[in-house]
């Protein structure tokens, strides 16, 4: 098989890349996880389960174990790709982006897979996650003709907001374990965490237990030798024994202790720090980690001023989306550079990872600190001196970014399309909508009182347009020409940007951030609220997330409030709202949600009398919603009304209407349910006639023909069981032969 052409390589290089995760990582203690490694390798050698989930509490050493497995797999050519999701911004990373990042890793390790990956880039745009997994991962791996399945490693999957939909989509690959398999790590066992459709995935779970006390002693014996002890005051054998017991078998606890003893961050010599640690009673677990973190912070930041600066620094780092130099970060947080540098250095005592260049660069906190530490500073009570609010941090960072907008340079069409800014100006250009939308409330009364609102309103129109042009060119550096924005107010500018970004799911987080700010600025603009609803609805359709549908419903409800009965778009908004509520019901099973959706579909139908061009769609939507109500409570009246509306919809969609096949399919299924309730053979006859028409509309080679054939076979078998008609038996045999071909 040939390698990629120059053009394919160029296209491939445009895929999202894994954030820099190089630098210092926790070491794997030799043989510390020997049984876990052996069991993992045994699973890899089998062809049964698609997914191995290694789970255990924070700090147990999951990432260290999978890095060890990764090295073993790479050495024998079995590694397909790997990602550490703790290195990705959890709120701004779309599921499609993670899959494309995995594809980029796959192509880097196996260049012969690049042509198939580029083929997926051409074919998978705006398709389902299942199609993305098949196109970007499965088919490229298959093209390598590897004798054993390639292993894809997804570490810290539960640290990523969209992990439920990614895991759900993996079920599509259940039958492909000869080609590809997945290892994922999580704090919780997915099979007991109520993830949607988790039972449909061929998954083996492996709990990771604490490391043995003997292994922890070996670790401490080795690393205590590196501590810069003073006056010969070293750790004794008894100290090592107590440290090993206090660790509770958590590697992160042990490594944090060594860091605290090794860093020159306070006036206390190492032996005094060690005495303080040994005096504690809490053993391991989250409580033991919290106690260790609290004591470390109290030693690092003694004065109230130092603690205030710590909160400013870590709060900004917690919400930071891209690395910034120490000097640029100091501008972002409004702190003198020497204080930023001091805090940055002091916190190295708590960091568990050292990204490349971290000595003079501030990276997003998730790439430097263990999740247990970040959760600790956000979970402690607000009155605690070290408590950090992500909302408040977004608010502060967002305001600093906004203040940069009025000073942005002019960008002319004569400049190169890839023109972009760097440092704080570049960061502010790209991320101010994200931070403002995460650090302010939608409520008009609350928004109007914020400094963010007054700052935005004070920015001149030409500066707003300048920002929009730079923003789009930052997101699309390969664009052939500079994208100009001509709208005359920020609300319209943000909506226009949303339209530009809707075509690319990788930029969904930026799209929704712009629209969130648009509805704050234009709280009375029904179009802005509707676009926000559509944005959330689209992500809900792609991910199945109930949260996305809830947000879509809120957006559509507000749109409806702003549209009087005579508004020309009111029926469309009612349709959007009814559909979003129907899908939300599918996620949460709340019957009141479904009933509200049905009510809105009835209102829509009343606004679309014959011969309204969208009446058939309204009839179909109402029919499906009533059918769903019947499924919930067995209401026969709802089923009968559903069939009436579905028949009327079909009548309004004569061939060659593009939606006729959809109406045929919906009515056929509804009729079968109705037949099961009343046993009337003529209803079954009607369903079979409709199935025959579906086959005419879906000739050989059509993607739905196989499912249509199976549906017709089932209905014929049901009629044959009732009537014994040999013609049905003969047709079943003919249809089955086509299915078997």
From TrEMBL:
SUPFAM superfamilies per record: P-loop containing nucleoside triphosphate hydrolases (SSF52540), TPR-like (SSF48452)
Xref: InterPro entries: NPHP3-like_N, P-loop_NTPase, TPR-like_helical_dom_sf
Keywords tagged on the record: Repeat
Domain Nephrocystin 3-like N-terminal: 40-187
Region (Disordered) location: 1-34
Name of the protein in question: Nephrocystin 3-like N-terminal domain-containing protein
Pfam family, one: NPHP3_N
